[in-house]
Amino acid sequence: MIAAEFNYEAPTTLDEAIALLQKYGDEAKILSGGHSLIPMMKLRFASPEHIIDINGIPGLADINIEDETLKIGALTREAQLEHSDLLKQHFPIFGDVTKLIADPQVRNMGTIGGNLAHGDAANDHPAVMMALNATVVATGPEGNREIPIDEFFYGFYTTALQPDEILTEIRIPLPGPGTGSAYHKLERKVGDYATAGVAVQLTLDSNGVCTYAGIGLTNVNPVPLRATRSEEALRGKTLTDEVIAEAARYASEDCNPSADLRGDEEYKRAMVGVLVKRMIHKAAERAMA
């Protein structure tokens, strides 16, 4: 199908883009990479009267570290994340996740901000951001507003972003010594949405005791899900097989998958357990490297 008619705007500053959102209200949509919005428009699932293309706004595609915080601009492409030496050094999980997103053509245009702002529990970055304890920065008429990732996702395709706000940056605490992270998803074929996915970040002290655990789950809940009981099962403990198995069991019990062509509920719960075990082991190996 072909998208309905729309008015195209290409602001060159954030202030201009926000003013357009205020002017057009609910009839406007932000365009960044376009890999979520454009297919929905072609299928007439979304028919905005106004498209505001923010790709011409400078300063929204940087990756840097400031005040012990990693800052990623919302227009940063998946390919930039995949090849960033800074991320390879501090956050190997980005190398895991980006190579599993669609294909190189999509990764050359798709943005991390769009991936999060779409509010889809099947997208990969929400679970990663939960594991990394990220904060989302929304910019609106009153300036910047910081939103903890656990308060960002409200429901199906619904986030904490207000109609006149734009997601402009993601902030992630720089991990300390003894930290490792990992992500993997089970997919039917390359580029498919996850049957289930798991993101893990761990910090281990010199005795091998877990002092921080972050675990996010992909596409096994109506909204992106933090595996809270699994995290609690790891913190303050040495990661024995028994401790890891308990964390995996909690994640399987606490997720809420829906049966579809990718598998039934029982199968998806089982795969969550398997992936949690594997990603804990992989993150722990990286933490001790």
**Cα-atom Rg, whole angstroms?**
19 Å
- Estimate the helix proportion, in percent: 25-40%
Largest sheet: 5 strands, antiparallel
- Name the overall outline: globular
- Overall pLDDT confidence: 95
Extended strand count: 14
CATH class term of the largest domain: Alpha Beta
- Quote the distance from N terminus to C terminus: 51 Å
- What is the strand content? 25-35%
Uncertain spans, ≥5 residues at pLDDT below 50? none
Name the CATH architecture of the largest domain. Answer: 2-Layer Sandwich
What order do the strands of the largest sheet run in, or round the barrel if closed? 4-5-10-6-7
CATH topology of the largest domain: Uridine Diphospho-n-acetylenolpyruvylglucosamine Reductase, domain 3
Count of helices? Answer: 11
> Structural class of the secondary elements?
alpha+beta
In short:
Helices cover 34% and strands 25% of the residues.
Describe the protein's architecture and organization.
Residues 1-177 form the FAD-binding PCMH-type domain. InterPro entries: CO_DH_flav_C, CO_DH_flav_C_dom_sf, Diverse_Substr_Oxidored, FAD-bd_PCMH, FAD-bd_PCMH-like_sf, FAD-bd_PCMH_sub1, FAD-bd_PCMH_sub2, Mopterin_DH_FAD-bd. This is Xanthine dehydrogenase family protein subunit M. Keywords: FAD, Flavoprotein, Oxidoreductase. By secondary structure, this protein is α+β, with helices and mostly antiparallel strands. It has 3 domains: 7-53, Uridine Diphospho-n-acetylenolpyruvylglucosamine Reductase, domain 2, CATH 3.30.43; 64-173, Uridine Diphospho-n-acetylenolpyruvylglucosamine Reductase, domain 3; 181-288, Enolase-like, domain 1 (2-Layer Sandwich). The protein has helices at 14-24, 37-42, 78-83, 85-90, 93-98, 104-107, 112-117, 125-131, 228-234, 241-254, 265-288, and strands at 7-9, 28-31, 50-53, 63-66, 69-73, 135-140, 143-148, 153-155, 158-159, 166-173, 179-186, 196-204, 210-218, 225-226. The strands form 4 sheets. The chain has a 5-stranded antiparallel β-sheet. Strands 11-12-13-14 form a 4-stranded antiparallel β-sheet. Strands 1-3-2 form a 3-stranded parallel β-sheet, covered by helices on one side. Helix 9 packs antiparallel against helix 10 (241-254) and helix 10 packs antiparallel against helix 11. The longest helix is centred in the C-terminal third of the chain and has 24 residues, at 265-288.
